[in-house]
Structures are given as C-alpha cells and as structure tokens.
Amino acid sequence: MQAGLPVEAQSAGLHLSGIAGSPHAARGRADGQYFFVNGRFVRDRLLSHAAREAYAELLHGERQPAYVLFLELDPRAVDVNVHPAKTEVRFRDARSVHQFVFHALQRALSPGAAAAPVAYAALAAEPATQRALGLAQSPAAYQAFMAAAAAPAVLPQDRDEASHPLGYALAQLHGIYILAQNREGLVLVDMHAAHERIVMEKLKKNLDAGAVQRQSLLVPAVLRAEALDVATAQDNREALEQLGLELSVAGPNELAVRAAPVPLAGGDVVALARDVLAEIRAYGASQALSARQNELLATMACHAAVRANRALTQVEMNALLREMEETERSGTCNHGRPTWYQLTLADLDKLFMRGR
Asked: What confidence category does residue 291 fall into, taking pLDDT thresholds of 50, 70 and 90?
C-alpha cells in the first residue's frame, strides 16, 4: 500500500479501481498481480497484457509490476464459464476492455514526479503541479538558464521546499549525480537519466500534436552514408520531417542533416540521423512511428540528454529539478531505471548511528 498509486477510472459502463504499484514495488516474478472482475479473482491474459503495456516505459528489463485491481462491468459483457476453476474469462468486446484498462493504468502511473519510485514515499504524497511544456529551450546545453546564472543566489530561508519536492541543488558528484536538499533530507539525481525522460516526454507531446518542432542548422552536418541509407532518407522524407529531421543528399555517399528536432539540435545530430535511419530500415516508417514510437523517441532523447562529466552550474541543476517536477513519469528514465532516490534524515542518522 505504501508503494502504490490509487487507480480510479470509469467509462462506457467500465469501472476500474484499486492500487497500482510504483516502479519501485516491481518484482522479479509476476506473483504480486491481483485482478478481480466483478468481484471474482481471475488470471486473464488480456488484462495482464494491458497492465504490462501500461508499465512498459517504467520498468527495467524483465521486472514485473505489482497491483491489486478491480474491474466492474455489465455481467452480460463477460463470460465466466470458459474455465472449470472460473479463473479465466472472455470479454464480449475484448479490444475496448484492453484499451480502457491500459489507458486507466497509464494515467494513474503518470501524475508527474509523484509517480517516482516509492523509495521516495514521503515525497510521492506531494504531487508537483502539472504545466504544459514547450520546446523553446535547448535541453542539450540548458543555455536558456545560463543567462540567469548571475542572478542573486536563493538563500535557504527563501526556499519553498514544500512546493518543490525535489528540493534545491547542493552540488554535482563526479559529473554524474546531482545532490539536492529537500525537507526530508538528501535527494540523489542521475542527471542523464532524468534529462532523457524530460526530452522524451516533450518529443511525445509534440509528435502526438502532429509533428516534432524542428530547428534549421546554421551549418548542415554531413555524414557518410551507404546507398541504402541514402535511399531510405529519400523514400521516407515525410516520416523524417514528422520526427523533426530534414535530410538531403550531399554527395554520392553523403547525407546532410539540415534540420533537427528543437530539443536535439545542440546534440550529436549525425549519430541521431544514423540511428533513426537504422530504425526505419529495420521496421519501416509506419511501424517506427506507431508500434515502435516509444523506442524510437527514447533513442532520440538519449542523444539530447546531458552527458556524464558535463559540469552544470547550480542554476542549471535547479532548472533540471524543476523540469523533473513538471514532467510525467520523471521517476524513471526511458529504460525503466530510477532517475532519483531519497535519503531521509532518518536514513542518514542510521548510517552514522546517531542516537545509539
């Protein structure tokens, strides 16, 4: 219960309620999954698949989600006599049930930073305010925040830690982690993993709106390409433009990247172009933009995310923390790894045996 998020959804005669375990509550085995249909415990492949799909971007490797869910619907819309033990069911409109469960769980698991792994239980109780995110900023360099570096430092007494569950940056560790202080204690942030999620959610939002915003490059980036790559770029021009990429033939074995997605324009656009072309070659443009959309966008986001060993100013670190609080699913990266971890003062006291 402590590691769970409430589920409550209703639509077209279907009602889903219960508790969805956070990514931190995931297990190595599928032994923490309880689904009830009209009060009867069932083991149903369709329901299990819908739940697994909802968790797809949040779990690492073969980790299994944990949940207790109750689905209620018209008894005439479900056949409970397909198994002697009554543990299997058959739905009259299986597709609608699958989509309803999938979207209901996905919404429950995406309330912003509050959906972070519940090693941060005290923080998850304080969801961050959701705001629409634009793409004017170039996340690869956080240049928009550099101009604010000369602003007066925020004094501890001026900080509103209740409004910012991830707190305020103290320092950067080995160019990989951000150390921040919140009212519970110490927050550790994997800056690359966190930024990957931020960029991916922005790309998804723009792609869902019709196309990813792109930025023309002042100097086109040229890459050597095989004949198959050149043909792929020419045959899939519209799909590439939908992803924010503009490629043109620059020579017999060369392609030029003339525009890139706004969040990625400051990154390695050559490597990005190669990876996207490889994805389209392997699966086709329509498949890459539908069934494999998340994998493709995760690849793109990885190229834009701040790299390890890049020194960030305190202003940049705090800007990243604020964006994490505003971004859905920011508790895990695009590969299902946690992006941050909470060490409470009690945890620290225990480490140093204070009070013993």
From this structure: low
CB-based contacts of 230, cutoff 8 Å, min separation 6: 249, 253, 255
Q: Half-sphere exposure (CA, 13 Å, Cβ side) for 78?
A: 25
State whether residue 135 is helix, strand or coil. coil
Domain count, the chain: 2
How far CA 333 is from CA of 196, 270, 318, in Å, comes to 6, 23, 18
- Is the full-model pTM beyond 0.70? no
Residues 6+ apart with CB under 8 A from 9: 15, 16, 17, 100, 103, 104, 107, 108
**Distance between CA atoms of 260 and 275, rounded to whole angstroms?**
13
Please indicate, yes or no, whether residues 31 and 120 belong to a single structural domain of this protein: no
**Token digits for 248?**
């043109």
Task: Look at residue 91 in the predicted model and tell me its pLDDT.
Answer: 84
Residues 6+ apart with CB under 8 A from 295: 279
* pLDDT in the model for residue 260: 85
Domain that holds residue 22: 4-109
Q: Give the separation between CA 339 and CA 336, rounded to whole angstroms.
A: 9
Q: How confident is the model at residue 173 (pLDDT cuts 50, 70, 90)?
A: very high
Q: Please tell me whether residue 308 adopts helix, strand or coil conformation.
A: coil
How distant, in Å, are the alpha carbons of 18, 40, 231, 286, 291 from that of 279? 38, 43, 14, 11, 12
> Does residue 149 sit in the same domain as residue 277?
yes
Residues 84 and 36 reside in one and the same domain? yes
Q: What is the mean pLDDT of residues 72-87?
A: 78
Q: Are strands 33-37 and 78-79 parallel, antiparallel or unpaired?
A: unpaired
The rounded distance, in Å, linking the Cα atoms of 283 and 299 is: 15
The CA-based diameter of the chain, rounded to the nearest angstrom, is: 74
